[in-house]
Amino acid sequence: MGSGRLRRVAAVAANTFRESVRERVFYNLLVFAMLMILSGLLLARLSIRQHEKIIKDVGLASIDVFGLVIALFMGVGLVSKEIERRSLFPLLAKPLRREEFFLGKFAGLALTLATNVAAMTAGLLLTLWATGARPDLRLLHAVYPITLGLLLVVALALLFSTLASPTIAAVATLCLVAAGRLSDVVRNARTVLPNAPAWLVEAVYYALPNFRNFDFKDRVAYGEAVPAATLAWVTLYAVVYVGAVLAVGVLAFRRRELH
Amino acid sequence: MNDAALEITGLTKSFRVGFLGRERRPVLRGLDLAVRRGEVFGYLGPNGSGKTTTLKILMGLLRPDRGSARVLGEPLESAGWRHRIGFLPEHPYLYDYLTASEYLDYAGRLFGLAAPVRAERSRDLLRLLGLTRSANLPLRRFSKGMTQRVGIAQALINDPELVFLDEPMSGLDPIGRHVVRGLIVDLKSRGKTVFFSTHILSDAETLCDRVALLRSGEILKVGRLDEILTVDVAHMEVLASGVAEAALQSLPGVLRRHAIGERWRLEVKEAGLGAVVGAIEAAGGRVLSVQPVRQSLEDYFFNEVVASGSLDQAWEAGD
């Protein structure tokens, strides 16, 4: 990608980031997530042992769930709203290619999510510190894969946002995320549907985004480290899947007629 | 250097309509058009005649079914000409959360302009369009006319050679229209080409070197306004004051009369002009002006539309 292209993608990304952080809903969600993380303090008091584990459990789950909500709600409107309001018309008349616009939108929301996850992680570490527990940087072994999973959600939301209205895009993304989180159920589908062809079940299993690959919350809450090789494999999986979804999104957006 | 700023050849576009989109409704039917460098070109037509569709195809928002175009000598598919043009869409919607300055800076970044150039051009354009005091307000607080002016500013941020303006006067108050008219005249004086679509015919009459008249996706006529609009020397228009209506009622040769305040506008046969002027003066009135009847663009357009079909047909194509 030439420097001109990179500059244009960066301009769209910077504008998308600015758009996201000026949305009131972003702050509402962030504050709510912080409250959830802090509520871990309260829950920890109810437990005689394992204060630290409860705080980590609640904190990591909050990062995961609120990150998902932000990725979903902001991602599904990213392109469709611009088409609906026609705000991208004057932009696409400039030397800005559609793929640059699309990738810029992705990069902008990815940056927003990374900022959001970083803020929530800092909140979790501070909560642990406030209870006298040693801030455990191994938490990052769970936070990093969560962030990769959220990037995949953004890519899917962006793809559907290019093809459909925000509502339909939200439903489609949510369905895929749910199916991806329950991928083991898909793999074992033949126990309920014995006549289903094995190759079809396998194909669906591998085609679905496997969000379980990004879930190390339990291991990390118990104080286990995640091996570097595993993290590298998860990174590769995310890069390939996100890349494929973005490629399909770019193709769809290029073909779309903008009335 | 190629003399044409814009060449369109056989441009055809239809939209899918009906259940499952099986039918196609033609919107542009083999459009041929050439715009010369340095001219102000008016693209005129009623609502739904295909003006906006033409512009959307040129800007790459829609794909044509057939046909081709060259912009500033380069094929439509090439990206190079996009650095040298500006575009204002119809009813622009800009970003609520940005200020006018931020929006212009964003537009400038997409052209790869350096930060000091972006800052200087933004400042100049905002001053030119009377938006300096609102430069740092969020665009959601802008009126329709102010938004339109910011839209025009973003179309000029790269100092383009060719500017496409889709209904540039839409939503503007009289002061805004005056400013934009001045801006278009200024662009022409600096050798720029302006292509603007409008259905406000008085704007075209004031500004355009040449116009194209579009109806139902077809070009009716292209040319200079004085070539298109006929001057009817057999009929004269007399403007008179200080004469009572009763004195005008009995005058032979007066075909039509309209009161404009204290004045009268009379349409008179050329052969009876002397008698009418004499009668007005005899009745104590004054003849303020006499000139041949000139068909207005609106008259021309309406006659063409009504002569060749119904009003429904004129509006049917849809942009």
Short structural description:
The complex is a heterodimer of chains A (259) and B (319). By secondary structure, chain A is mainly alpha-helical.
Structure report:
The complex is a heterodimer of chains A (259) and B (319). Chain A is mainly α. Chain A contains 13 helices and no strands. Chain A has one domain. Chain A has helices spanning 3-21, 24-46, 51-75, 80-85, 89-92, 98-130, 140-163, 166-181, 183-187, 189-192, 198-207, 217-221, 228-255. The model of chain A has no long low-confidence stretch (mean pLDDT 88). Chain B is globular, with a radius of gyration of 24 Å. In chain B, a hairpin with a 2-residue loop joins strand 12 and strand 13. In chain B, the strands form three sheets. A six-stranded mixed beta sheet of chain B has the order 6-7-8-3-9-10, sandwiched between helices. Helices cover 33% and strands 32% of the residues of chain B. Chain A binds chain B through residues 4, 7-8, 11, 15, 18-19, 22-23, 85-87, 89-97, 257-259, and chain B through 15, 56, 59-63, 79, 82-83, 85-89, 91-95, 97-98, 102, 106-107, 109-112, 151, 154-155, 158, 164.
What's the alpha carbon Rg of chain B, rounded to whole Å? 24 Å
CATH superfamily of the largest domain in chain B: P-loop containing nucleotide triphosphate hydrolases
CATH class of the largest domain in chain B: Alpha Beta
Query: Which pair of chains has the greatest number of interface residues, and how are they split between the two chains?
Result: A-B, 24 and 34 residues
Determine the oligomeric state from the structure: heterodimer
**Separation of the first and last Cα atoms of chain A:** 29 Å
Q: What order do the strands of the largest sheet of chain B run in, or round the barrel if closed?
A: 6-7-8-3-9-10
Biggest pleated-sheet summary of chain A:
none
Work out the helix count of chain A: 13
Domain count of chain A: the total is 1
> Residue-averaged pLDDT of chain A, rounded?
88
Secondary-structure element series of chain B: EEEHEEEHHHEHEHEEHEHEEHEHH
CATH topology of the largest domain in chain B: Rossmann fold
Domain module count of chain B: 2
Helical content of chain A (DSSP H or I, runs of 4+): over 70%
